[in-house]
Amino acid sequence: MPLIRESLAAGKTVRFQPRGVSMLPMLRQGIDSVILSPVPEKLKKYDLPLYQRDDGKYVLHRIVKAEQTYTCIGDNQFKLETGLRHDQMIAVVTAFTRQDREISVKNPGYWIYCRYWHNSRGLRHFYRRAKGWIRRHLK
Fold first, then answer.
1. What is the rounded CA–CA span in Å between residue 43 and residue 39?
2. What is the mean pLDDT of residues 20-45?
């Protein structure tokens, strides 16, 4: 992380391969990568920042509410993380690679994906819970 912070402080972009499943289906561990850029003065809804939690853990989640603090959530999660401060933000994703193709966060398809995926969160959560209930009770 020190090398990433150093490069970003110099105004450079950094290619980074995230780990974990919290950003599925957009980012697949060991397959996709993101391009990080320095954090702008103000982040907005649907930006995808890399930030450090107060416990020291590094996280890459989408902003779903931007006010005086930020509220973030992973695409594959249902619990919001609230109260994130701007000083915790390290970088912001400006593009990602998918099957050797670089996709900008300004791409219209990405814009549609972000809105659809966020707005369908309640339905996806219901589906996942119902599927688990059915599995447990119909064995």
1. 8
2. 96
CATH number of the domain that residue 35 is part of: 2.10.109.10
**Model pTM score:** 0.90
Domain that holds residue 100: 2-137
pLDDT tens for each residue of 94-139: 999 998 899 999 999 999 999 999 999 999 999 989 999 999 998 7
Contact 61, 74 (CB under 8 A): yes
Looking at the 3D structure of the chain, how many domains does it have? 1
For residues 48 and 33, the answer to whether their CB atoms sit within 8 Å is: no
Q: Strand pairing partners for 36?
A: 14, 93
Q: Say how far apart CA 48 and CA 107 lie, in whole Å.
A: 14
